[in-house]
Write a structure and sequence with these properties.
Order of helices and strands: HHHHEEHHHHHEHEHEEHEHHEE
Strand order of the largest sheet: 5-4-3-6-7-9-8
CATH superfamily of the largest domain: Vaccinia Virus protein VP39
Structural class: alpha/beta
Protein name: Class I SAM-dependent methyltransferase
Largest sheet: 7 strands, mixed
Number of domains: 2
GO molecular function: methyltransferase activity
Shape: globular
Oligomer: single chain
Radius of gyration: 22 Å
Keywords: Methyltransferase, Transferase
Strand content: 15-25%
CATH topology of the largest domain: Rossmann fold
Pfam family, one: Methyltransf_31
InterPro entries: Methyltranfer_dom (IPR025714), SAM-binding_MTase (IPR053173), SAM-dependent_MTases_sf (IPR029063), WH-like_DNA-bd_sf (IPR036388), WH_DNA-bd_sf (IPR036390), WHD_Rv2258c (IPR048711)
CATH architecture of the largest domain: 3-Layer(aba) Sandwich
Number of strands: 9
Length: about 350
């Protein structure tokens, strides 16, 4: 009979309680975000449950009280037992209120819900080896994915990622042609277009509902005169002569990333640049046994690998492919120079060129 180590068992159960507490918080956090409770508390706090219910638009005090106690137990808001008032600190507001904060996480909670919604389809694929078509696993997986990545794009694309590329910013300021391949709902494309008004942008994505959303976003942001979105797979793009091609968090999702790399070479000018933004990862699995790797491996199991296996070739790189593997894929398309320009807490940026 195996002898149990009671200390190890208790430690592991404690970890599981913490993990389950986080999982249990997903629906209550999402309700609080949709009903504006976090924002109302930051605006009016410290506040009693009754005050918060009123500030949030006349919600039920009993529900709000239980919700607020749940968030206090989560550590997501603060509770003063003496006054029985709740409050939200500036640091907590960075996560739950400030939508342009680099750590705003509404999209992350929505992504968790989308993964749970798609659980049965992915489970079926475990048995068959087939994939799950992008957008089919959950009602609005593409919306949640766009919202999840938006804070990182808002705080990095123009500020650090593009400036790290050799000679690209100068071209963008003067007037460049840019293709944003795998643009999703268009957040990345529109951010670039606003920053560089002399350049023109085309966003491409194989998911037509995402393209519909992207065109709507372009109109609402007033950039539809020089930004367009087209439904097309990476290898089907017909326009050529681009100064810059960007691919944000999508190369590893493609069924044929090598075919994509080969086609990016064809649509770029000879002195053009391909910027590939991918989830940060080490080259070996043991390098990724950390909180960020944990998030990405789980998301990759539920979204990235099923998406890739549904497509032609189905290479299934996964979200933790690592720089060495990605560079090998990019080189296979004929790019002679590949270098990492930026490493952040969640992403790494690769620059690919056809010449030195």
């Amino acid at each position: 009979m195996v002898q149990l180590d009671e200390n190890k068992l208790n430690s592991f159960v404690g970890k599981m309680l913490g993990d389950l507490g986080g999982a249990f918080s997903v629906p209550t956090v999402r309700i609080g975000l949709r009903l504006g409770l976090f924002t109302a508390l930051y605006r009016a706090g410290p506040a009693t449950a009754a005050d918060l219910a009123t500030e949030a638009g006349g919600l039920s005090e009993r529900y709000v009280r239980e919700w607020a106690l749940a968030q206090a137990a989560n550590g997501y808001i603060d509770y003063d037992s003496g006054t029985r008032m709740f409050s939200l600190s500036p640091e907590q507001a960075m996560v739950f209120v400030n939508q342009d904060s680099p750590v705003y996480l509404e999209g992350a909670f929505d992504l968790v819900a989308a993964m749970i919604e798609g659980e049965r389809k992915v489970e079926r694929s475990f048995r068959t080896g087939a994939g799950v078509r992008w957008g089919d696993s959950a009602g609005c997986l593409f919306c949640a994915t766009g919202a999840f990545f938006r804070p990182g794009y808002v705080n990095n694309i123009v500020q650090t990622w593009l400036p790290a590329l050799r000679g690209v910013e100068d071209k963008l300021r003067v007037g460049a042609r840019v293709a944003d391949v795998g643009c999703g709902v268009g957040f990345s494309t529109i951010l670039m277009a606003k920053a560089y008004p002399n350049s023109s942008f085309v966003g491409y994505d194989f998911h037509e509902p995402s393209i519909v959303e992207a065109n709507s976003h372009a109109q609402s942001h007033g950039v539809d005169d020089r930004v367009k979105f087209v439904a097309a797979a990476a290898k089907d793009i017909e326009e050529t002569g681009y100064d810059l091609v960007t691919s944000f968090d999508c190369l590893h999702d493609m069924g044929d990333p090598r075919g994509c790399a080969d086609h990016m070479r064809l649509i770029l000018k000879k002195d053009g640049t391909w910027m590939i933004v991918e989830p940060v990862a080490g080259d070996l699995p043991e390098n990724n046994m950390n909180p960020v790797g944990r998030l990405y491996y789980n998301a990759s199991t539920m979204i990235c690998v099923p998406t890739s296996l549904d497509q032609e070739v189905g290479e299934g790189l996964g979200a933790q492919a690592g720089e060495a593997k990605l560079a090998e894929v990019i080189h296979s398309g004929g790019f002679t120079h590949v270098r990492r320009t930026i490493t952040g807490p969640f992403n790494m940026v690769l620059e690919a060129r056809l010449s030195a």
